[in-house]
Amino acid sequence: MATGREIAELCGVSIATVSRVFNQPETVNRLTRERVLRVARELDYRPNESARALSTKQSTMIGLVWDTDHRRPGWRHPYLQDLLIGLKSALSAHGYHLLMLATSGDSREVGASLADPVGYVNMTRRHHLGGLVLIDSGSDAEAFEAFAQSGVPCVAVDVAVEGPKATYVTSDNTAGAASAVRHLAELGHSRIATITGPPGNQPAEARISGYYKAIRECGLPLRDDYVVSGDFYRASGTAAMRRLLAVDEPPTAVFAASDEMAVGALLAARGAGLRVPEDLALVGFDDIEIASVVEPALTTVAQDKPGFGVAAAKAIMAMITGADREGPVILPTQLVVRDSCSPPRERLSVF
């Protein structure tokens, strides 16, 4: 691969001119610029990104703030894989790259910790990163608000933030949850329970709001014993389903705020000798891969997972380039009807 010095010699210009062609093209006359770019293409020359960042005070790197500590379950959620693919692809289309910013128990080593978000902001400025994408690992909302107030371009996923150069991307969780409950009610279910996400999590709060909204609209009774908390993961779905089956009048249908919890609920129902959907109707949320391969295939509320990444990339590029940016991006959801729901039939309590 050619160097900048070789390009300069072949074109009869200075190294500084070659640098300006790639970093400040508007300062170089058209003929010189075209000659340098043609020779660079022929010799497969690529400017050094580190040097480019120093000269322009901005790199083509976008930092990903995401606490991947193995003790925090958020990074293992399957829907994040599709989100990251969409984000990376969309940034690449603009010539940008994604850089994961590490966290460590020793913040002196990395200079950053979600417990002290100022370290992350300083890291971003020190390396001239173009901006930050913030993915919540379960309890990062307070730290993300500090990022939003820093003036660094940032886009949060599923955390509502506000700031001079901050916005967020989320799904219409309330509408999605309401559509799930309405579907069960339209099948004839009146005893509809829910397994919620963790308290304080914004998507979880929106989904429980959608559950309550649809229960009221359908004229069904609101029962405290039909609302059981989970954490979005399978084991909590199993535990919650066992609690629901132990109430005096068990539900005939359950809306779980994630597919993982719905699968856990399915396992608990089978363990209690119930059949899905004949004895218990189930609806999940997310439409991850397991939803379509589990038996019976799971009716669920689909999120546009790659669309999350694309929307986040579009929003952060708008802030970087100074284009007019819109407010928060709320992506629509879609009810995907499969085999885990049927009309209710009277049954005795299994306990």
From TrEMBL:
Keywords: DNA-binding, Transcription, Transcription regulation. The keyword DNA-binding applies. The keyword Mitochondrion does not apply. Residues 2-56 form the HTH lacI-type domain. InterPro entries: HTH_LacI, LacI/GalR-like_sensor, Lambda_DNA-bd_dom_sf, Peripla_BP_I. Signal peptide: none annotated. This is HTH-type transcriptional regulator DegA.
